Amino acid sequence: NSPVDPWAEPPEKAEEAALRPGALAEFRGQPRVSDQLGLVLEAARARQTTPDHVLLSGPPGLGKTTLAMIIAAEMGSPIRISSGPAIQHAGDLAAILSSLVPGEVFFLDEIHRMSKPAEEMLYLAMEDFRVDVVVGKGPGATAIPIDIPPFTLVGATTRAGLLPGPLRDRFGFTAQLEFYDPADLESIITRSAGVIGVTLARGTATTIAGRSRGTPRIANRLLRRVRDYAQVHHGDGKPVSPRTAAAALDLYEVDPLGLDRLDRAVLDAVCVKFGGGPVGLSTLAISVGEEPQTVEEVAEPFLVRLGFLMRTPRGRIATDRAWNHLGLTPPAPQGA
Ligand code: ADP
């Protein structure tokens, strides 16, 4: 009878779940996506059918998993969660699909990283709610068709462009999630502060929102770090001031624009090591000690959105704004 349950989720994980909005009405920001999706779900409910398959794309942390869970909750359906890299064999996929209950939501994260045979099996499943399981090898192999219950596939990918056309075409509703406006992040932070029991003074949510890289996951993470800092330095339970929040975020090396260490390393490499570019993705990734995928899907989208980085066919180029942000003088334009 140990007082510590070894199987308990770590506290931050449990908090993470509490922070996830459970209904479309609680989902902040992305007004267009949320209106359109609301309509898809309402129509499906009225017709008593399963909603069309949904494809969600956008950088990590913008709410793709949250939306998949909301779809299931709004339809009163269970949800099954898996990811492209976890499904290497078509058989893995067949096992999941054939065990779904009618109306279940199947959330497939990183859908662009699935193997080709699994992808082809998914086409048939999405269209005809059927899979062909191949038994045997060589000339004696036979395909046994298995019916699967109607389900809603919610696919998530960091970029819709990574998906083959035939797969993309099989989704009835496609939504591109954008980085959040500061006002939406502020409202997410205010809600989250209530959930985790931190009192924020006026203006503190704005300070944290401004440094959250347009991303709710980061907003929630920064809020927790601010809570830690306030507890240790001002453990008096008073509302956390904007100044305390800024001091906490400085300590965690999140700069006033929200750039973190990886973002700055990427900018620094392009400007200083590669003279402003162009530099290819893999060279850039090696020079900052990261996977190309992380540089491309985590760091770059926000740097491009800030107008710091341009992706060109010849490679990545730093803009004058990037040089200025690093406190450096941009090189004179060529030919001047
Ligand atoms: P993704 O699947 O796109 O990587 P998640 O759905 O896991 O992102 O979202 C990351 C975190 O951000 C979640 O824990 C959730 O609490 C929060 N979050 C995301 N979108 C919203 C939103 N629109 N409103 C409130 N919280 C959100």
TrEMBL record:
Segments forming domain AAA+ ATPase: 50-181
Gene Ontology CC annotations of this record: cytoplasm; Holliday junction resolvase complex
Binding, DNA: 311, 316
Compartments, as annotated in UniProt: Cytoplasm
Catalytic reaction equation(s): ATP + H2O = ADP + phosphate + H(+)
EC number(s) per entry: 3.6.4.-
CDD domains according to UniProt: AAA
Name of this chain's protein: Holliday junction branch migration complex subunit RuvB
Organism of this sequence: Acidipropionibacterium virtanenii
